[in-house]
Amino acid sequence: MAARRGIVTGGTWCVDNNRVISFWPEEDGIAEILSQELAGGGSGCNLAVDIRHLDPALPVETIAIVGDDEGGRFLRSIAEEAGIDHRQMHVDGLLPTQFTDAYASATTHRRTHLFAKGVAASLTPDHFDLAATHGRILHLGLPGFHKQLDGPWAGGDNGWVTILKKARGLGLKTNIELASLAPRILADAVMPCLGHLDYVVVNDAEIGALAGLPTVCHGVTDAGLCEAAARAVLDSGAMELVVVHWPQHAIAVARDGTVARKASVAIPPELVVGANGAGDAFAAGMVYGLHEGWPLDRSLALAHATAACSLRSVTTSGAMVGWQETLRLADQWGWRT
After folding, report:
1. 151, CA 20 to 30 Å: which among 29, 55, 163, 287?
2. Are 319 and 312 a contacting pair, CB within 8 Å?
3. Could you give the count of Cα atoms lying within 13 Å of 161 in the half-sphere of its Cβ?
């Protein structure tokens, strides 16, 4: 078999109804919808599309499940337009395509998501024919959103572990994407996966959930606890690298003892529209650098720069550009200290 090259994304593809609202109201309150736009979302979609924007020459494949409905056809059209190999985007006519109402506050630029799992609950390890893929890195997500994968499969490990074992057995490197669900849900689904992962790229709250540490308190991130949590997670698994990111900073801790720290991009506030997809964008930049064999500090820089570029759109991937332009824009905007 020829040497593997490219990225394989597996898991969540959903339809995002992106809305910019005047502010996020409390219960019984009211806020104005200022704009709305339909787009693809979910870890499998976002990272696949982002990578294709960063480098259109790099092959990207995806494995997912959608409904036999308008939403499913919309997501398949996104994959086709982006040049993503979607032969393993399975269609199930029994349930609707997963969707998310994604709200971005024009006041704070914070995001709030309301979702319906739909057909995502039917995704199983049997949908993953990894022997038929050609990519080098499998980017898998999202635990907590796929009922069949979250539970035991064939009387053994959970579905995520089953897929990861297959992937590593075939020579793929593995990474997992998370969403900021309740800590107990994340820990139950993800901790069994740590022995079968090569990379973990997560945010400050997610690393705290895995390590059982209060990395974020009253909205403030503790960088020291993030690093301690990264080390604890690294010690609990087989990973080469654990990366933790938040809006101001990122820390990468490697198995060989290397530690890299990088402040984020000082994007002008007037360019910021919303944070939906910024975490996926960070992961895309990081995974691209890892695939290309870049030094750790350069990969972190691209990850931050990709996340900053994504903030310019209410959709997850609407503001993505090539990696050279991404780094040029970051240098133009400047870096936080």
Report:
1. 287
2. yes
3. 19
Report which secondary-structure segment, H or E, holds 167. Answer: helix 159-169
Pairing of strands 199-203, 173-176: parallel
In which domain, by residue range, is 171 found?
7-333
- Which of the 8 DSSP states describes residue 335? B
pLDDT value for 226: 98
Number of structural domains found in the chain: 1
Whole-number Å distance between alpha carbons of 324 and 336 = 20
Give the separation between CA 234 and CA 243, rounded to whole angstroms.
Answer: 10
Q: Which two tokens stand for residue 276?
A: 């939906």
From CA 168, how far away is CA 129, in angstroms rounded?
13
Judged by DSSP in three states, 27 sits in coil
Nearest alpha carbon to residue 105 among 29, 179, 206: 29
CATH number at residue 292: 3.40.1190.20
- pLDDT by 10-residue block (mean), the chain, 337 residues: 90 95 96 95 97 98 98 98 98 96 92 93 98 98 95 94 98 95 92 97 97 96 98 97 98 97 97 93 98 98 98 94 98 97
Burial class (CB in 10 A: 0-12, 13-18, 19+), 224: exposed
Provide CB contacts within 8 A for 280, sequence distance 6+: 43, 46, 47, 50, 177, 310, 316
pTM of the model: 0.94
With respect to residue 244, please indicate whether it lies within any of the assigned structural domains: yes
Locus of tokens 């994968």: 149
Interatomic CA distance for residues 289 and 49, integer angstroms: 16
Task: Determine whether 311 is exposed, middle or buried from the number of CB atoms within 10 Å of its CB (0-12, 13-18, 19+).
Answer: buried
